[in-house]
Write a structure and sequence with these properties.
Length: 123
């Protein structure tokens, strides 16, 4: 085991990856906001207001749910087309179609749900 680790450490590629990984970890660990100085004594920590963040979150959630629902819709079509009369395959297709409908329903309700969150946090 010791010779394996020794040979692994002394490979040039492993050392390069370790060096780059360490540099990236250090760069990510030190926040850029710590060095920000606008000069007038005020510090701006957020680029967007809370309503903008919630609107961006709403777009992402709706897009993600619609994409997943579309995937389930395509899978349902494939399952149904390849079922060949097999009852278990048809049930699997129906379940995928049901999941697609649920996904589209959640995508439509995402603005309502995020509006509730916005009301709770006072945005």
């Amino acid at each position: 085991m010791r010779t394996f680790i020794h040979s692994l450490i002394h490979r040039p590629g492993v050392r390069a990856v370790a060096a780059h990984g360490t540099a990236i970890a250090l760069a990510v660990a030190v926040p850029e906001a710590a060095y920000a100085d606008p000069g007038d004594g005020t510090a701006v920590l957020a680029a967007n207001t809370l309503p903008q963040v919630i609107a961006n979150l709403q777009s992402w959630v709706m897009g993600l749910l619609a994409a997943i629902a579309t995937l389930f819709l395509v899978l349902a079509g494939v399952y149904w087309a390849t079922a060949g009369g097999d009852p278990s395959a048809v049930e699997r297709a129906k379940a995928a179609l049901r999941n697609a409908c649920i996904g589209y329903g959640l995508a439509v309700l995402a603005p309502v749900l995020l509006g509730v969150v916005k009301g709770i946090v006072g945005g």
